[in-house]
Design goal:
Blueprint: E1 3-7, H1 12-23, E2 27-31, H2 35-40, H3 47-56, E3 61-64, H4 71-80, E4 85-90, H5 97-102, H6 104-125, E5 130-136, E6 150-151, E7 156-157, H7 180-200, E8 203-209, E9 211-213, H8 225-235, E10 239-242, E11 249-254, H9 255-267, E12 274-278, E13 285-287, H10 288-299, E14 305-308, E15 318-319, H11 324-329, H12 339-357
Parallel strand pairs: 1-2, 1-4, 2-3, 4-5, 5-8, 8-12, 9-11, 10-14, 11-15
Antiparallel strand pairs: 6-7, 11-13
């Protein structure tokens, strides 16, 4: 039986990966130490998801309480499955701009050093495995903010004749911009993954994600845009929109669609350090104002929100991913869920639990 190692296996993309690859016949080992609870508080804990996965997939899923910064522990896991690991999915990360500034060393160690530990263990013990890395569009820093956006009633938008109107591709530079410390640590990890593909010939890929979402997301104030927005609407918690008059635009991809992209890449993995921007693209995007309106309509109640004039450092005014390069290389893949469906699922699968916790 082939083995897959999934880091951050209790999180949004990690848990989706566990379920999909167990169902595809993999023996899945999760590396998960619930650091999300340390970052964002008990309400962001992934422990309940780990328990759910263990109960759902007895014998096929093993969860190891392991910190990816621990090089020797990571090495032991890979060495113990030498010759069996066919896939590594790296989703573990410190994911917040603001948190990174509060503890830069931990942020860099988790995002950059942890990635290096996994890559080196893969090279030593599983050099024929596919290595999938969840990167981020924040590697581009605030370069997207220089785009010639026009202000519409409910959103910012690019002119249709602009080269990035259908979405931003990897031709955008990651240099000479303000990234936030989180963006820097993720850029370091992204470049390491590319380098292990190019220098050592591993089959690596960086998926530079827009907003990743889905019902398994433990959204928190500092991370998890749509999930936390719906939670606040349902429970009556106050919500703050940071900057840009609420007209900033994000594309949103369901976790199942992103993991499907992982599967397509693995089935036709190519050595050499592939890089793709991935998200909802032109099919699935919204501004903050549009997202609030959708949440209120689905939840049947108003969100108590305020607008801060201060935007987060390095935050994007507008981001839509160009999905065409990945779709051209992997034509069997496509988005299966739109924004309305995503937000309805967020509500229906979590509202009762959110209210009980509140």
């Amino acid at each position: 039986m082939p083995t897959a190692i999934v880091t951050g296996s209790g999180g949004l993309i990690g848990s989706e990966s566990v379920a999909r690859f167990v169902e595809l016949g993999f023996d899945v080992i999760g590396l998960e130490n619930d650091m999300r609870a340390s970052f964002f508080g008990a309400e962001a804990s992934t422990a309940h998801m780990t328990e759910t996965l263990l109960a759902r997939f007895p014998g096929a899923f093993t969860s190891l309480d392991l910190d990816i910064r621990d090089r020797e522990a990571v090495e032991r896991v890979f060495a113990g499955r030498a010759g069996q690991v066919e896939l590594v999915i790296h989703t573990a990360a410190q994911p917040s701009h603001d948190w990174a500034a509060s503890d830069p060393h931990t942020d860099f160690e988790v995002n950059a050093l942890g990635t290096l530990n996994l890559l080196e263990a893969t090279r030593r013990h599983a050099d024929s495995a596919t290595f999938v890395h969840c990167s981020t569009n924040k590697v581009y820093g605030d370069t997207p903010n220089a785009l010639p956006l026009i202000e519409l009633e409910r959103r910012l938008e690019l002119p249709q004749e602009h080269g990035y109107f259908q979405g931003i591709d990897t031709s955008m530079s990651i240099d000479r911009s303000t990234h936030s410390l989180f963006g820097v640590s993720k850029a370091a990890a992204d470049l390491l993954v590319q380098e292990y593909g190019r220098y050592f010939g591993l089959a690596t890929v960086c998926f530079r994600g827009g907003c990743l979402t889905g019902p398994n997301h433990a959204g928190a104030i500092l991370h998890g845009f749509l999930s936390y927005l719906m939670r606040a609407t349902v429970t009556g918690e106050p919500y703050t929109v940071f900057g840009y008059a609420g007209k900033q635009v994000r594309d949103n991809i369901h976790s199942a669609d992103l993991v499907a992209a992982f599967e397509h890449f693995h089935l036709d993995a190519r050595a050499g350090g592939a890089v793709y921007n991935i998200g909802g693209g032109r099919e699935c995007n919204c501004s903050m104002l549009e997202a609030i309106e959708l949440c209120q309509g689905i939840a049947g109640r108003e969100l108590q929100w305020t607008l801060s004039e201060r935007n987060r450092v390095g935050d994007h005014r507008w981001w839509i991913s160009d999905l065409r390069p990945f779709a051209a290389d992997y034509p069997g893949w496509k988005l299966t869920r739109g924004l309305q469906e995503i937000m309805r699922e967020l509500h229906d699968e979590n509202a009762e639990r959110w209210l009980a916790e509140r």
